[in-house]
Amino acid sequence: MSKSNNAILTDMKKAKGLGSAHHGAIHKLQHDITTLVNIPLVAWVIYSIFSLRNASYQEFTIWMSNPVFIVMATLFVIVTLKHFALELQVVMEDYISSKWLRMVKVVGMKLFFFALGTTAIISILKIALSGGA
Amino acid sequence: MSEESTLRERPLSPHLQVYRLPYNALMSIVGRMVGIGLCVSLLVLLGWFIAVVWNPGFYTQSLEFLNAPWVKYIAMLWAFSVFFYIGNGVRHVLWSIGIGVNEQAGIRTGNIVLMLSVILTFALWQFSCGCWSNDYEAAPVAEKVKAEQESVE
Hints:
The structure holds 2 protein chains of 2 kinds. By secondary structure, chain A is an all-alpha fold. Chain A has one domain (21-129): Fumarate reductase/succinate dehydrogenase, transmembrane subunit (3 helical TM bundles of succinate and fumarate reductases, Up-down Bundle). Chain A has helices at residues 3-16, 24-51, 57-64, 67-95, 99-129. In chain A, helix 2 (24-51) crosses helix 4 (67-95) and helix 4 (67-95) runs antiparallel to helix 5. Chain A is elongated. Chain B is 75% helix and 0% strand. Chain B has helices spanning 2-8, 23-54, 57-66, 71-97, 103-128, 141-152. The longest helix of chain B is centred in the first third of the chain and has 32 residues, at 23-54. The model of chain B is unreliable at 130-140 (pLDDT under 50). Classes of the chains: A mainly alpha, B mainly alpha.
């Protein structure tokens, strides 16, 4: 293959998006970091869920107006949704062969996670700012 | 004659339905399926939390469901999945660093993760025995919460 031909092929590959996207490393790195950061957050969430078993609504709101809850819950929502967005993106890219369907699903999933995360954080703030009332 | 025998005796490529996955491949696909399941559980958890914050009456309603005797087994299965998934995630982090990237190490770390998940689930079971009273029928928490809410109003 001549040099010029190779150059044309490479450009075409880039144009079609078939070559390396050159951002796989950051995806993997974020996935790994969110895994590690999640360990204390998930431990705390499991502790909360199993401690609040059989709790009354008042006990529940007292727990939720605790500053530790506000910080941990907000971090938990952000980090887990980020982690699963990365996870599901990989799953979708592995198993959905149609390019457009894949793109729609990945973008739709991320937008949905963004909306859900925002709603969850606003809910946490509502409890925090209303003093657990 | 020859045509028939060649048609019958063709070797098949290892197809998913007839191919028994080796340990590491099995752990890999189970890890991914557990991840998707946990993602769904996270959506349910956040949805429940949002619903409870904006509609406190839903807390009482959901307690009636959550006090069903079988829910604690689902919760334990969920906890086991979380421990397994995080353990698996740590394995992935170690592989990223370059530790344990071979078949034997994969089997060893996979077994460690499985054993740790079982131990942690058992520990959680022991811990939560105090939270789980045995007599749901005798003292339904939902009734208690209803009474408290009425007294507040």
